[in-house]
Amino acid sequence: LDLSNCSLHSVPPGLAEATAAIVLDLTENPLTALPDSSFLGFIHLQSLAVPLALECPGGRDAWQNVTVDRSTRLCQGQRNPCNSSVELAWQCPENSVCAPDGPGLVQCLCDNPFHGYKCLREGTFPMLLFGGILGSATVSLSLLLWGTQRRKAKTP
Fold it and tell me: Is the pTM of this model over 0.85?
């Protein structure tokens, strides 16, 4: 994805839709900041060129090779922060595993069959029970309101 020399002052919001990008060029743009969250989901990104004034997203430790040219910083080979030896490995709650989510970013995914907050609930979500209770409450409330408000309706 070549976005070089596009007069970008910030990362375009539409960039979030390009998570399948492998190579991204942001050079020759007057970018002032490069928030790490701009690259959330970019797990396939292997080469990123940014203006010299900016650092690689996630820092030097998020990339295997960072080279500096005259006006370009080239970040190559995105590292997996889940099994990094540079810092302590990312700690996920019990019943979950660490997964990369972009340069220097991680997410914790629940192991099967766990789900919910901090992967503490086991089994599947009780969709039938939830739908039944919600449907019953909606029908009951609708009938109650129809019965109590019917007398206020004007008759022709």
Answer: no
